[in-house]
Amino acid sequence: MPKLQSAAELEKFRAEILASRDPAKPCIAVCAGAACDGMDSAAVAAAFVAEGGKLGDKIEVRTTGCHGYCEKGPNVVVTPGDICYFEVQPGDVPEIMAATLKGEVVERLVYQDPNTGAKAVHMHEVPFYKHQTRLLIGDNPKIDPMRIDDYLAVGGYAALVKALSEMSPVQVLDEVKKANLRGRGGGGFPAGSKWETTRNAPEKTKYVIVNGHEGESAAFMDRAMLTGNPHKVLEGLIIGAYAIGAQKGFMYTRHDMPLLTKHVRNALAQAKEYGLLGKNILGSGFDFECELHFDVGIFVSGESSALMRSIEGNPPEPRPKYIRTSVSGIWDKPSNLNNVETWANVPQIITRGADWFTSIGSEKSKGTKLISLSGNVVNSGVVEVPMGTPLRTLVFDIGGGVRDGKTLKAIHFGGAMGGSIPADLIDAPLDFDGMSKLGAPIGAGGLLLMDEDTDMVEVARYLMDFLVNESCGKCAPCREGMPQMLHILTNLTKGEGKPGDLERLEDLAEVTGLASLCALGKTSADPLKSMFRYFKPDYESRIAGGSAGK
Amino acid sequence: MCEQKIDGIIEKYRGEPGSLIHALVEIQHENHWLPREVLHKIADALTVPFAQVMQIASFYKTFSLTPKGRHEVHVCTGMTCHLRGAAKLRAKVEELTGLKDGETDAESRFTYETGACLGSCSIGPELIVDGKHYGRMTPEKIEDVLKQYE
Description:
The complex is a heterodimer.
Chain A: H1 7-19, E1 27-31, H2 34-38, H3 41-54, E2 60-64, E3 76-79, E4 83-85, H4 93-102, E5 111-112, E6 119-120, H5 127-130, H6 148-153, H7 158-166, H8 169-178, H9 191-200, E7 207-212, H10 221-228, H11 230-244, E8 248-254, H12 258-273, E9 289-295, H13 304-312, E10 335-339, H14 340-352, H15 354-358, E11 368-375, E12 381-386, H16 391-398, E13 408-413, E14 419-422, H17 432-438, E15 446-451, H18 456-470, H19 476-493, H20 501-515, H21 519-522, H22 526-534, H23 536-544
Parallel strand pairs in A: 1-2, 7-8, 7-10, 8-9, 11-15
Antiparallel strand pairs in A: 1-3, 3-4, 5-6, 11-12, 13-14, 13-15
Helix pairs in contact in A: 7-11, 7-14, 8-9, 8-11, 10-11, 10-12, 11-14, 18-19, 19-20
Chain B: H1 3-12, H2 20-31, H3 36-46, H4 50-59, E1 71-76, H5 79-83, H6 86-97, E2 110-115, E3 127-129, E4 132-134, H7 139-147
Parallel strand pairs in B: 1-2
Antiparallel strand pairs in B: 1-3, 3-4
Helix pairs in contact in B: 1-2, 3-4, 6-7
């Protein structure tokens, strides 16, 4: 593949790809997302390829990233028509192939409502999917993440073309600011303002970073996005670099997901080959390179300043926040960091405009949000809904409610530094500010259901235990305060609580929160605070009775 | 251990102190642990003080300074796996192998570790052996899984 020298060449190449593809030709997309992969979807894909070989070239078989409905993997989607097959085994393959050739459906493998028995064949009819707005993750079944041509075929890199050929960097920045795109990594800080700070910083050398660390427990939507559609994230990053005036980017992600590293590595190489990375991108005069870096196994390295130390090759110790990384980050150069989902939003904002983007979502939180739905839920998976969607829709319409017919006790957001709210707040809308006020900030978007049997004291102990192990140890209040909280919580779970324990916990929570440098220490007691707010009787009973009863 | 491969990795980063973590990750993946003499070689080649190499190698959880067993047994302790009964899996693995978190048995058959979270929450609780996921695990099924690894 020769380098694409201009926007026109890219569009011509896209037209050639589309002309060479027959939209009526059946295509079977086998999900290789984290959960499907764990259920050996590779064997299913191999069976499809073998069976397809026997039939000649009549059916295309594609291995893709996460489709979303992880609970029912391995997932298979057949186009045209987006026919969804669930829990597909290699033995089912010949039947699916035969039916697909005849334009028929294998009824026994389609979705069936567990209560009514009603079947749903097409994706837009399946309850898990039909309440979603899948702007970011929706392309996953259409793309083999190893093939940049698949991304181009769904309109990929059109936003980059538009930005480089029709817009100045300031216009791109203004569009993102106008769209009020807020950081999806947890803080909800406006991405446009952050970009502007880095752009305006006096140093000439600037960096942009994709935070794909995703260390939050039970959060798996970013890796679904980055593994399944790496070019979308990369396109967002290149556009951001253009707006900011950065010459170099870093993809920072996990080292322990073989498919993720393979896809990202490959995407960077392909983009370079096509001339979408490197010197004079598409003849615009804009130069940009991107390097891949790996987290090597500690939660705090997802914190922005710690992450930057790690890229430099140092231990990931956070530093005080009065020096902003957007002004002085990697090697003391202005460094703009956003998470995977934030970058993935950029291309559509450029292509479809800020007015379109702000028409989706709630008043102060625009666009959609990717959510990892798990815990005691019937349908776990990766979900995308407009901001402002009531939690009830997520939990019941999409999630199908609580497993094993139990009742909902709590909804937990934001992993180990998040919070839990009781079931009666289920009509609250999914919104950065609203959820923060309730004490369960969205965080990166890990949503867990907890059923009636959940011991809230044990949950707090578990989360604190996790954080104690993940603290880098730099700040004494975090390093020493958390083990003290863990000690008390452990006693409570054993039924050995003493009068004064809850007050001491509150005291420790306050000091650790005030005197730690980074969010890990600062918000370490947030789950505990939310529990004191909503589930205090669960804690008091451990003191008064002195027994471990619920 | 394949000395040639390790030397090849070190050579790739010769003279680049900033690539310390890259070099350590690659060697860890290749060799499953970081012998002290290899760390000395890295320090010399990348012109990084040995103390700093040790600081990084001992800080990050991915790096192991002791040899690992032939098979790595991992029980996910992420939140969903926890809510869905990971503690019972841990107890069973510990009973069957006689190991505690982080230990390797005398025959170097298994190294047992726990940790969060690999993001396959939908099929939790899970056991992962040498990178292969065994989803929707129950304590009863563990013995049969471990038998496959000698």
